[in-house]
Amino acid sequence: MALINIQNLGVTLGEPLFDGLTVTINKGDRLGLVAANGVGKSTLLSCINGEIAPTTGDITSARGLHIGYVKQHPSEADLAKTLYELVLAALPAEQADYEAWRVDVALDDLSLPYNLHGQTLAQLSGGWQRQAMLAAAWVTAPDVLLLDEPTNHLDLARIGILQNWLAKLPRDTAVIITSHDRAFLDETTQRTLFLRTEASRDFALPYSRARDALEEADAADERRFANDMRQAQQWRKQAAKLKNIGINSGSDLLVKKTKQLSERAAALEISARPSYKDHSAGDIKLTNSGTHAKALLTLKDVTVCTPDGRALYQTGHKWINRGDRVLLLGANGTGKTQLVRMLHAALIGKESPIKYAASLQLGYSDQALSQLDSNMTPLETIIQSTDIGDQRARGLLAGAGMRIDLQDTPLNALSGGQRARLAMLKLRLDSPNFYLLDEPTNHLDIDGQQSLENELIEHETSCLLVSHDRNFVRNVANKFWLIDRKKLIEIDSPEPFFKAAMSGGHGVNYAEILKC
């Protein structure tokens, strides 16, 4: 049964985001919504929820349909509410008095710790805020759930809980998920909509299989385009010959035929444009300036501590050699970011027990993109960090997906994806030979993630990475360090850790699991 019908939908906000979208959402659909940054995934969800009026087209819903919408960020008003108050306030006033037990059920289903119930959303991390907003949407028993980047800020254990929760939803409940987490989409969806500026494509397949089908469809589109262009070229050649004959012979019929052939060629060229030639969010390019040093970093029994000096774990004797792409694994709170901060401090010249090669050139990016000044514009950021002039800087920014109007916009007004791509461009211009990257795929769309993966591999970059993105880890890393039982150990594969963490592995002895 159809719950939502979308017909020929289009939205223009300054520039066209998408157009001509036609899709039906049925009972029980688990739809993954995939698109490049800036194409309008969140805008489409807002249209479905009735918050934004489309520029063209229509959305019709089944009578009495109730939608639960979980946005990426809480509102200012919601930040002042406690977690429990937020969920309770989602219930209609007449229900809140005598069905408050629904709140406890929703919080319990999502395994939200009791000690967080009395904290305001402003006091909670981004991950807990997202889970609280999900509970508030679910407590109202919606027919359709709209989830906008639900895994952002979640560790693997929470992603595992979310996956299991989604799997246990009533079969009739439809769910639309926007996400850049490929592994999550594969686990939670059975249908994928690739939203494009024009000619969006819908496949009754989970993400990875749908992506393969999309590439096949695009290849067929490319072949059709090439054939059409050859046909148009033949018509133009015929028209040119007939034109000469017609002029020389004075034949009006041939002149008319010439015009017809030229018009047919022009019409075919216009209609034949490949539908998959979508606007790009911009290229991600990295460099590897190279070094003759074999060992770039050496950790010899370094103690990693909390900011207040409490010891977390010992590193033992570890090396990062040229060409190593090291992935740092561990449950939240075990000290991954603390090691990254210690390495960063050492590599910018602060006193540290960490040893590194004299030729090491650092490229650094953290989760918050703190290497970027949010009060500066992209143009100022690039010019300040390099010796290039204004025009060259603008050209580089355009190649990274920054339109001219965005180049002079303060960073705090840009999207997370735009800032992430700017951070990657700045890294490239720093010409590092060692990258220290903490959650580098945060905010990047899937194309951006794959582009970053390719750059790290093709340039044989040396790096230490922290990431919860399972696909990114599997594709990029060739060395794995795990924080376990106050020690840093090297393991052969991340899969046992993923399995333990996704099953709720807080407090699990990973060392014992790795022996199995």
Q: Can you describe what's shown?
A:
The chain is built from 19 helices and 20 strands. It is of the alpha/beta class and 516 residues long. The chain has three domains: 2-212, P-loop containing nucleotide triphosphate hydrolases (Rossmann fold); 213-271; 295-515, Rossmann fold (3-Layer(aba) Sandwich), CATH 3.40.50.300. The protein has a six-stranded mixed beta sheet, with helices on both faces. A six-stranded mixed beta sheet has the order 16-17-18-14-19-20, with helices on both faces. Strand 1 and strand 2 form a beta hairpin. Helix 3 packs parallel to helix 6.
Brief overview:
With 516 residues, this protein is of the alpha/beta class. It contains 19 helices and 20 strands.
Mean pLDDT: 89
Total number of domains: 3
CA gyration radius, whole angstroms: 27 Å
- Proportion of beta-strand residues: 15-25%
Defining key terms:
516 residues, alpha/beta, Rossmann fold, 3 domains, 6-stranded mixed beta sheet, 19 helices, 41% helix
SSE inventory with pairings:
Elements: E1 2-13, E2 15-26, E3 30-34, H1 41-48, E4 56-61, E5 67-70, H2 76-79, H3 83-90, H4 93-96, H5 101-109, H6 126-138, E6 144-148, H7 156-167, E7 174-178, H8 182-188, E8 191-194, E9 201-203, H9 207-249, H10 252-271, E10 295-300, E11 303-305, E12 311-314, E13 317-321, E14 325-329, H11 336-347, E15 355-356, E16 362-365, H12 378-385, H13 390-399, H14 404-407, H15 416-429, E17 434-438, H16 446-458, E18 463-466, H17 470-476, E19 479-484, E20 487-491, H18 495-502, H19 510-515
